[in-house]
Amino acid sequence: MTSVLQAQGLGKRYGRRWALRECTADIPAGHVVGLVGPNGAGKTTLLKLAGGQLEPTTGGITVLGGRPGGTPAQLARVGFVAQDTPVYTGLTVAEHLRLGARLNPRWDAAMARERIARLGLDPTQRAGRLSGGQRAQLALTLGLAKRPELLILDEPVASLDPLARREFLQGLMEATVEHEFSVVLSSHLVSDLERICDYVIVLADSRVQVAGETERLLATHHRLTGPRRDPDRLPADQHVVSARHTDRQSTYVIRTDAPIHDPVWTVTRLSLEDLVLAYMDKPTTADRRAPLEVRR
Fold this sequence. Notes:
- By secondary structure, the protein is of the alpha/beta class.
- It has 2 domains: 212 residues, P-loop containing nucleotide triphosphate hydrolases (Rossmann fold, 3-Layer(aba) Sandwich), CATH 3.40.50; 75 residues, no CATH class.
- It has a 7-stranded mixed sheet with strand order 5-6-7-3-8-9-14, with helices on both faces.
- Helix 6 links the parallel strand 6 and strand 7.
- Helix 4 runs antiparallel to helix 5.
- The radius of gyration is 21 Å and the shape is elongated.
- 38% of the residues are buried.
- About 3% of the residues have low confidence.
- Keywords: ATP-binding, Nucleotide-binding, Transport.
- Pfam families: ABC_tran.
């Protein structure tokens, strides 16, 4: 399967602080990928490394088979919308589109004009006079009209109200269906990822904790609740992700491909938010293992 992004032992250090370390990932093409993790986990650093805005301290990364930002042709294949949905406040909407046409050899002027009209944006309006949701939509239009093979979005809806977030994500979904490109979208709002992403990467403690297709991840993770039991008494194929204990009860989140037959446990399904929070929790000593990549 073709990969849009591959990282091996990737790390980025600022002085003595590691923003990202030992990051290994292989993101297949054709997905809307959700990159989720707590603030400070390294999401923005990973995306900037993928966009060619940063150079790694250790390890390597390839995007669409090439070095990020290595050549003008490589840059043309990747779109990037940063967290603050950057636009030039003094330029009008129409001037943004003309600038995009000059900077991007694959620019789709017809698509950009059609989208601006459909959104009801006034081409003569300066970006500084637009609402936050409108600025985000303008930034997304610039990213889409570039006609990238991979679109990277770094928490583009973090500052938007719920209605603006919904409209932004709806527009993104429609564009991915129509133009068939890959997306990597970072967010700390799991509900947004659950709405549009079919592949998820959990980044915590500056490392990838788990990665895989959303449906597969949810099918192989379970919550077990029952009488208190030490983790070393669980079957070897039940890998502990997180654990909580009281004097009489244990609650585990485990991953396994095998059926769970032990009648002592009450087994419940996880939501995507449950799964993400389990991996963001401090790892138990029972399962300090390499990051899991769940494939079909």
